[in-house]
Amino acid sequence: MLLAAAVAGAAGPPRLYNSGPARGAGFIRIANLADGTISVTPAGRAKIEISAQDAQRVTQFEAIAPGKIVASIQFGGRTRKLDIAIAANELVTVAVGAAANGGIAWTVFREKPTDFNALRSSLALYPVDKTCTNARLVADKNTVVIADVAPGSVGRRAVNPVKAALTVACADKPAQLPAELGALEAGERYSVLILADRSGTRRVLALRDEMAPTRD
Amino acid sequence: MVLAGLVLLVIGDSHMVSQNYLISTLHDALVSQQASVHSYGTCGSNPGDWVYGMTGNCGQGERHDRSAPLIDYSQKAKGWTIKGLLEQHRPNLVVVQMGDTMAGYGQPGVPQAWAYGKVRALTTALRAQNVACIWVGPPWGSEGSGYMKTHARVKEMSDFLAKSVAPCVYIDSTVFSKPGEWPTTDGQHLTVNGYRTWGKSIAEAIVRIVGEGQVRTQGSLTSSAAQR
């Protein structure tokens, strides 16, 4: 019913409503680091296929109610059950790849960022390659932006939104690999993953983080 | 009068939904500056709802220039999208009033990642249309109500918004009063006097921001529309 409220006097206040998700929100995304499409079937939900094309390897962060996430992951005729807990305000990246024995392996990266800032850009470094110790992200050849990140950990830093030539390096290889993100945009968040393919060749996957639209 | 002749679109949450709330006081204050003002409020909405749409809400209201507010408490209404409102009104300036619906009252902290995603959804949509914007944060409210609002959390949320809403210019409503100075009816919503003072303070801040050139209000949507 549409009312023309033309008379003085406050109407009754609206009913109570939430000031955010009732139990908070965690976020999860999957990175497909295998050399073919992987399938992810979350419990009670439809199967998701994640391409091995670089532009599509990493899903958007999807908001979930904090708690356990169970999913079946399939690749190359193998299936493995993912069973992890995600806390409120936690951003989880599950990097899925092929294990040395041909099975499915993954590394779970966790962080609770508090550096949200619409005037800055946020860079994160994810050394997925277990042989990449003391990972670092370098701008314009010699300015260390993020240093000494251990494999399986996340390094993060807020920077000014500028165009910079970014590279990554590990302790064992002084040679730097390019991380191509283009001009950084204010308020955006970026991920740089250091990977190794089946032959052990190291390479970099760099992307802008995306949040999946939600109505929660 | 720096707002004279400008088209202003004001969107907000429940603070904009009832008679004598901001849909009355802020709207009147902006109209008195000879601006053309279109106000919309959707109870319980967060910024993402204005981008992705709502499936229902706890009431909504709209008001146009010197007309009376139109209030719908049916809870079946689905609000509006910023895209539709920008196309309909082609404003020079958008004023966003939202914060309480993202503060996580009763929870251990502000749900920062979630809230940032919601804020960015709306600011990205506004930036894509090249429209100037001002963002109004939450007032102190009262502690100890069913809303579980606390002064500490309001301060935390306001500080979070101040860092998150660019390119919108932020108006910190907590500087307009001392904690607890403006009584509420339910912990969240102010009394008539409170909304009168809050609306007047917001309007004065908008006049100052526009007067100082902190936002570019001339021809923003008109030029982008001409390029389409």
Overall morphology of chain B: globular
Low-confidence stretches of chain A are 1-11
Question: What is the CA-based Rg of chain A, rounded?
Answer: 21 Å
Number of helices of chain B: 7
Summarize this structure briefly.
The complex is a heterodimer of chains A (about 220) and B (about 230). By secondary structure, chain A is mainly β.
What does this protein look like?
The complex is a heterodimer of chains A (216) and B (228). Chain A has 216 residues and is mostly beta strands. Chain A has strands spanning 2-4, 26-32, 38-42, 48-50, 62-64, 67-75, 78-86, 91-98, 104-111, 121-127, 135-139, 143-149, 155-159, 166-170, 173-179, 189-196, 202-208. In chain A, the strands form 4 sheets. A 4-stranded mixed beta sheet of chain A has the order 5-2-8-9, with no helix packed on it. The radius of gyration of chain A is 21 Å and the shape is globular. Mean pLDDT of chain A is 91; it is low at 1-11. Chain B is of the alpha/beta class. Chain B has a single domain (7-221), classed as SGNH hydrolase (Rossmann fold). Chain B is built from 7 helices and 7 strands, in the order βαβαββαβαβαβαα. Chain B has helices at residues 22-31, 49-52, 82-89, 112-128, 151-164, 192-211, 220-227; strands at residues 7-12, 36-42, 60-64, 70-72, 93-97, 132-136, 169-171. Chain B has a 7-stranded mixed beta sheet with strand order 4-3-2-1-5-6-7, with helices on both faces. In chain B, helix 1 (22-31) runs parallel beside helix 6. Strand 1 (2-4) of chain A pairs antiparallel with strand 4 of chain B, so a sheet runs across the interface.
